[in-house]
Amino acid sequence: MKKACKTLGIIAIVAIIGLVAISCDNGASDGANQTPVESDYNIDNLVQAAGTVTTVDITIKDNTRSPGTVENIRYDGKAKIPQADGYYDVSFDVAAATGWEAATGLSAGILMVINGIIMETAKSEYVSIGLSGEGVKIEWGDGITDYWDWRYRITHEYTIDAKRTIIITGLVYTLDCSEQELTRLDVSNATELRSLDCSKNSLTSLDLSKNTALEVLWCSGNSLTSLDLSKNTALRNLSCGSNSLTSLNVSNNTALEVLWCSGNSLTSLNVGNNTALEDLWCSGNSLTSLNVRNNTALDDLWCSGNSLTSLDISNNTALRSLYCGENDLTELDVSNNTALEFLYCTENAMNEYALNAMFGTLLNRNGRWRGYIRIAGNPGVTSVPACDQSIATAKNWQFSW
User: Fold this and answer.
1) What pTM does this model have?
2) Fold of the CATH domain 246-401
């Protein structure tokens, strides 16, 4: 009996020790919770334009950091996002999560709200900018600042490879920042801007809603998927080719004289309101129709590489150059185009009868400068019988291959 009681006593002691150990283990686990720190987070969007400021971007660097929610972002201790230019201390909290303590008052750095132009570039060796303006100040992002008035082009060299945020303040009338590896361009505060060339960069968006004085815009060779020009009613010259645009609305841009939008993914293009249009380049899209009847001032039309099955140019009596190759045209009447000098309609679907009919509508250029025509790739060029090119050559048109 005594032996049994002794055994039960030992078992009880072991059980108590086990419970204590488990309790100690839980306590140790709670005590081992980690606490988030500022360096666990990527902080972006710390330089923004006055009047368009959005929240600072705060994201964890990887999944080894706290999954707790980032909350209570404050600017100089206030929750309201500031819109006036100035410098603001940014802090934030992180909610508790499994294995992680909560954290309050972490610093996200300084938010700079700028009343000027902001550019971010991946170009690390040098940046070259052309502009005109008054009282212009450029902060190059490496502690160096330049000042000047009126028109000038400046190249700034960097001594350390790094991505840069460049800030331009003052009155800027024209800006050429093409081919500078820009990933961001904010011109929302450059309300006096009349000409902007930001072509051949890496821009994915471009807000021009505040640039109502803009007359010239070159933004080709970027990665734009949309372009809102509804507020840019003074626009005369637009080059937006080689982007990823699926639509383009220029109905409000009635002053437009030049439109280059080739190399996008446009399925339609309405230029009915653009009666001042002189040059239209819309090649390399997915257009199935193109109405240019209202564009009587048109001098140069490039619409190659689409899916056009017909093209009415009877109202375009000022037309001098027409490039409509690589479409599905079965006929083309140029009888009203008495100013025509260059006609390139290669790779279409015109048979010998259609080609002969087109030759018959060509202006007789005898006694004038020779005209030039290309028709290669149409069925009627190689068919038996083939088209009669002498109809065109007799009118002083030369075939060019």
Assistant:
1) 0.83
2) 3.80.10
